[in-house]
Every structure is written in C-alpha cells, then in structure tokens.
Amino acid sequence: MATTLIPGGTGLIGRHAAKLLCERGHTVRILSRRARPDVPLLHRLRIEYVQGDVRDPASLAPAFAGCDAAVLSQQFQNFPVENPKRNETFDAVDRAGTEHCVAAARQAGVRRLVYISGIALGNPNPSHPGIRAKLAAEQAVLGSCISSIALRVNVVYAADDKYFPRLVRAARWSPFVPIPGAGTARCAPVHVDDVARAIAHAIERSTISGVVNVCGPDEVTWKELLLAVAQVNAAGQRKIPVHIPQLLLLLAGWIGERLPTPALSRDAVIFATQFDQSCRNGISCTEAFGFQPIGLREGLRIAFGGGEL
To answer: 239-269, pLDDT tens digit by residue?
Structure first.
C-alpha cells in the first residue's frame, strides 16, 4: 500500500480521508502547521505528523520525502474569508501552495497527486479570486508530469463540519432558518465519507486521470438544502425560511473585511451564494470509480441523526 502525504490533513476532508486510508492499509503522513495537532477523529490511528506550511517551500521537502502519493487538501484558516495580513488567501494557499507542493512532489519522486478542487470551477468566465486560484492549482497538478487527478468536490456535509451542525442545533429551538440571498443557486451535496471514498479510489487506481466530479445524486437549491438540514431532528415542526438580502450580506462583508481578524468578506459572500454547483457536466464518481455517493436523505440521517427531507 502507498505512503500518502496529506497537506491539510487536519481539515474536514483531509482528516476523513486520512482515517479511511489508514483503515484500508495505507501509511498516512499529515502535513500541519502545528507539530502535533489534536484531531479527535484520528486519535487511535497510526499517523505520522510533519510540521510545515504549503506557503513555505523550504518546509515541504521532509514531508514529501519517501511518499508515493499526496492528497492536496490544504485550506487557509477561516475559509472562505481571506486574511491578507496573515497571507491567508486563495492565491497564497490554493495557487502558490499547490505549486510549491507540486515542485516538492516532483523532487521527491512522488508517483500520484490528488488535488481537492471545487465544483464551482465549472462556472464560465470566473472572476472570483478563489475560482481563479483553484483553476491555476488544477492546471499545476494536471500539468505536473506526475500521474494526477483533480476531484471537483461539491458542498460537503458531515457531523463534524463547521456549519451544518450549528444549523441542526439552532433548529431545535428556533422555527426560523436563515437563507443567504435568494437561495436559488443549485448544488448537489455530498457526504464527507463519499469524498474520502473517492480520494481512496483516486490513489489506488492511478490509471484514472483528469477531472472527476464528486457530487451527491440529489441536486437541490441552497434554500432546499438548508431547510432539509434544519428539519433533520425537527420532524413535524414547521420551519420558516428567512431570506437575508444580498445587499445586507455584502454590507456585512464590507464591515467584516475591516476587522483586525476578518469575520466575513464580500468575496466570501459571493463564493458561498452566487456560484452554480450543479453536476450536469463532467465525469462522475460512478463513471470514474464505479460507486455512487449516498442520497441526501440518507446522508443527513447518518450525519445528524435522522429525520425527513
């Protein structure tokens, strides 16, 4: 089995991928900015941690040395709200960080690269800095002369993600569900375990290359998704959508950008609300890896304890 490095292995996708790879017999190494991060999901697993930062090319050589594969899943703190003062931006982490990883992988003789990309990259003429950075990162990986694949992941949900569990808890006492903007942008949410499964297939089946979409089978609007999540443990309780106007969100983003530690930004509002994340085009998990991610109803039951869509 492969020795796999995961930059970003303490994040949501990275830690679930690390867990599954360990269970499948792989040797896993995690690159982290901290020497020994505390990741409860990984406590009982034999994982090596290496301190480093994708923004610092000099720190990457020890991490990549001796690895057969790498899963590039790094994100900056408080994603998708950039903090330029701390160099926590899409360009620094997604584009330049990925380019640094590709160079280190090439030097170390890594034989397989898996880049965790985003389904929003399918939008035409992207002007958003996050999409531009991820497109450049995809190109760096796929043009690296190393066997490579880019997984364009849709909206991910899990019991241990940053956002959806808060909504589930809030819905236990409040009938109101906040909907950013019109809530009409479409997505195909995917359970984090299916993302980890796609990553494992991408490493173990190195003849598959190019771009693969990692999406759930149910395409919904953001409004439908948020109402479904809020309803998980509130069967029989009517939930009332409350739309937050786009202009108000952008104003909050403008104010948030000016805080010492940005709490929100206009780019983050646009990134989260305005891009289509449907999976109408491209190669699916079923076509590439022979499995279909679980449906939203079942996935929400697994993640948050049951309930009706």
So the answer is: 999 999 999 999 999 999 999 889 899 988 8
Question: Which two structure tokens, joined as six digits, stand for 212?
Answer: 């693969």
Measured distance CA(183)–CA(116) in Å, rounded: 25
The three-state secondary structure class of 305 is coil
Distance, CA of 214 to CA of 175 (rounded, Å)? 32
Domains and CATH numbers, the chain: 3-159+189-217+280-294 (3.40.50.720)
Would you say the C-alpha torsion 139, 280, 152, 165 has a positive or negative sign? positive
Alpha helices in the chain (DSSP H): 12-23, 61-64, 97-108, 129-142, 164-171, 192-204, 222-231, 246-257, 266-273, 285-289, 296-304
Return mean pLDDT, the chain. Answer: 93
Bridge-based pairing state of the strands 176-180 and 190-191: unpaired
Instruction: Give yes or no for a contact between 250 and 120, defined as CB atoms under 8 angstroms apart.
Output: no
* Nearest-angstrom CA–CA distance, 57 and 182: 42
Distance from C-alpha of 155 to C-alpha of 99, rounded to nearest angstrom: 25
Rounded CA-CA distance 210/208 in Å is 7
* Cα maximum dimension of the chain: 58
Which residues, at least 6 apart from 150, have a Cβ–Cβ distance to it below 8 Å?
Answer: 114, 115, 117, 138, 141, 142, 210, 211, 212
The answer to whether the pTM exceeds 0.85 is yes
